[in-house]
Structure formats: structure tokens, C-alpha cells
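Q&A log
Question type: sequence-to-structure
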Amino acid sequence: MAINFPTSPSVNDVFTSSNRQWKWDGESWQSIRAGEGGLPSQSGQAGEFLQTDGTTLSWEAVVTDPTMGGDLTGTASNAHLAANSVDSDQYVDGSIDNAHLADDAVGADELASNAVVDASIASGAAIDATKIADGSVTSTEFQYINTLSSNAQTQITNVETLANAAATKGFSVAMSIALG
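Response status: OK
Response body:
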């Protein structure tokens, strides 16, 4: 039986005919026998796989816990997200809530402008008075305002008016006594 080999082979091309193989070495077709660049001479063992580099086949051990790459670190059985592999573009809206944030995880520098408004502050927040306006009024001084019954300036003006009236009346009485 005549074998009709390809007429324009490339180096390392393999030709099969009637369960036999030949490999083109650049000059001629060479018969491939088991263990000579064709199939490996032995059968694979449990936990092995057949690997090729494009020209040679070999049996290799299966790695049962391979090292991860890309956005993962560690091994397959203990994989972790690599540092900086997830950013806000990958978050699903509403997927991060208070239960997922550590205490003090978000500070003033992380908040958007006007993110906290009056309605956002709980009534029992106990904000120190020095954080209001320019910080010159203490919480104790601020608490004194709680005892005012009306506008502070009006009360001051009224006290001043009463004091002036009393002083004027007292002066008048003294003058009456002195002048007789």
C-alpha cells in the first residue's frame, strides 16, 4: 500500500496513515514510534494529564490547589481578592449598608458636600456646642439658653430698662430727701 505524504509540509507537521505517524523534520518524513515525539510510551496515571508544548506530549501531575492570578491571590482553596481589584464601579447600588461598614469607617473627608443635612442628624446626637458656628460657645454656655423664656436680647434690654428706671427713681428719692 502506497503512502501519499503531503507535498508542502511545515517543520514538525505530523502525518497519520493506517494508525502510523510520521513527522516532517524539514528534509524528510520520519516515522514516529511511541516515546519518540508522538504519544508518550506509557499510560497516564491517576492525577495526571496529557500536556503538549506544540511538538512534544508528556504526562504531568494535576495541581489540585493551583495558585490564583489576576484579581485573585492565594490558592484555589483559599482565594482572596487582590488589593485594589474592586472599586466603586463594581458595587451594586444599595449593596453596602451600615452592617457592612466598620465604626468610624467614613469620616468628614469621605462625605460629599452637603451629604449631611439637619434631617440627617438624630435628635439624640449630643453634638458639642463648640462644633456650632465658630466654636467660641461652650456646651455649658449654650445650655444656659435653655432657661430663657423669650428672646435673649429683649430680656437683656428689659433688665437694663428696669435697672435704669430703678436708678432714676432712687436718685429722685435721694434728691428729694436732700433738698427737702
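Response note: Strands lie at 14-17, 20-24, 29-32, 48-52, 57-61, 72-73, 80-81.
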